[in-house]
Each structure stands twice: as C-alpha cells, then as structure tokens.
Amino acid sequence: MTARRVLVTGGNRGIGEAIARRMQSEGHRVVVTSRSGDPVDGLQVVACEITDSDSVDAAFAEAREHLDGDVEVLVANAGMTKDTLLMRMSDEDFSSVVDTNLHGTFRCVRRASTAMVKARFGRVILLSSVVGLYGSPGQANYAASKSGLIGIARSMTRELGARGITANVVAPGFIETDMTAELPEKTRSEYQAAIPAKRYGQAAEVAGAVAFLASDDAAYVSGAVIPVDGGLGMGH
Ligand code: NDP
C-alpha cells in the first residue's frame, strides 16, 4: 500500500468523517474540511466553504502545509439537501443545492487537478447518491446536482486519464447520518422497505468503497459509478 496525501471535504462528520478515519487507519495522511474549521478529535481540520473559490483555494493551501505536499487523493464529499416538491421549489432552493453539491465539487476538483497533473498521479472520488440516477420526489435539485457529478468524473477520466489520474463516483443509498435523520419516519420506513438489504447503510460501508478507489488496486478503475446502496439501484 502506498501512503497518500488525502483531503476529504466535509470530513468532520457523517460519511466524510468515516472516510477520513478509514483512510487514516490505513496509514494515509489525511486532512478534512468543515465550514467552521472547528477541531474534531483525532483529525486535522481546515475551514472550507465550497461555494467560495477563494475559500477552496485557501483550504488547499493550508492542507498542503499540514500534509507536507499537494493533495494526491481528493474525496469530494461535502454536500447538502434542500428538499421540496418541484412546483414549490424556488430558484434559490435549486441554485443553492447545485452551487454546493455540483459547482462546489467542481471548484475542489479544479483546484486539486493542477498539482495532480504535475505529479502525474491523482485519485478523485466524488460522493454522488443513488438519487442522482434513480430520481426522488422532492429532490429535483439534489438529484440534478448528484447526477452532474458523473459528468464531471467521466470528463476528467477522458481529459486527464493519460496523466495517471483516475476519477470515480461513489453513489451511496440511504446511510445513517445527520442528513437522513432529518427525514420523516414515514419516508424512512418506505425507503427501507424498498431496499433489498432491508436496512440503512453505515457510513463505514461507504468508506470501504472509497478506500478501494484510492488504493493501488484501483489504478485501472476510472469513470466508474460504484453503488453502496444495499441493492436499491440494482447497480444502476
Ligand atoms: P452530513 O449532512 O452529515 O454532512 C455534510 C457535510 O458537508 C458536513 O461536513 C458539512 O460541513 C459539509 N458541507 C455542507 N455544505 C457545505 C458547504 N457549502 N461548504 C463546505 N462544506 C459543506 O452529510 P452525509 O455525511 O450524510 O453526506 C455526505 C455526502 O454523501 C453528501 O455529499 C451527501 O449528499 C452524500 N450522500 C449521503 C447519503 C446519506 O444517506 N446520508 C446518501 C447518498 C449520498 P459542516 O459540518 O461545516 O456543515
């Protein structure tokens, strides 16, 4: 296993935190971002607001100091929801979710890729969702933002594949985190009934797929969408 320099956006809690701890346990050097930059036990945190290119730039510069070199593995995990039915969805409901999940990821990927091209090595892992491929009532904004990530990963694969850079997407299903804790109980049980595994996933199960994509074993995997959803999307 080659130890890498890893940045996980939104790695202070939920899925991002599980990814960061898994990567750290495998011997990688890891920095996580959160909006506040507040300390998190056992993790190196830098502040980053992914809707702001200057903030992204500053976070990468600070991460470079902590990691003692440029980011080799970017896990673009930060994201948000603002659910409401299409006919009630305001322009702001739509654009704020797209600006965070899609444009925010683009800002991080663009910032990371310069050093990856120079190093002729990079692993880019984007956190999409089963909803990006499956659709979901009340989530037109979120689904649009998450399916757009596949376009970014596949374009990167074509553009930068010859430079030793891979770009892949992990598409989790319903995972126990703050994000799904917000769902009404009726919605939670309906979703659970539809999942072939008949349970919600754990953040650590998503971290396993991310760890594989960052590993030496995944050097020839790029442009892929890896579902971690208990079978809900049937492999998409
Ligand atoms: P959480 O809501 O638990 O955490 C979201 C993370 O994103 C936090 O670290 C948060 O930072 C960060 N974040 C949100 N908005 C911004 C922003 N504008 N700038 C910088 N950071 C931001 O989410 P999960 O752990 O559940 O989800 C992680 C990722 O996985 C998301 O992209 C989500 O869409 C995706 N996903 C989650 C699923 C689930 O079932 N939970 C299913 C499928 C996909 P802060 O703490 O500072 O607010």
From TrEMBL:
Key words, A-Z: Oxidoreductase
Keyword Plastid in record: no
Signal peptide range in chain numbering: none
Pfam families attached to this UniProt entry: adh_short_C2 (PF13561)
SUPFAM superfamilies hit by this protein: NAD(P)-binding Rossmann-fold domains
Residue intervals of the Ketoreductase domain: 4-178
Enzyme Commission (EC) number: 1.1.1.100
Similarity remark: Belongs to the short-chain dehydrogenases/reductases (SDR) family.
NCBIfam families for the chain: PRK12826.1-2
PANTHER family associated with the record: 3-OXOACYL-(ACYL-CARRIER-PROTEIN) REDUCTASE, 3-OXOACYL-[ACYL-CARRIER-PROTEIN] REDUCTASE FABG
Annotated protein name in UniProt: 3-oxoacyl-ACP reductase FabG
Originating species: Janibacter alittae
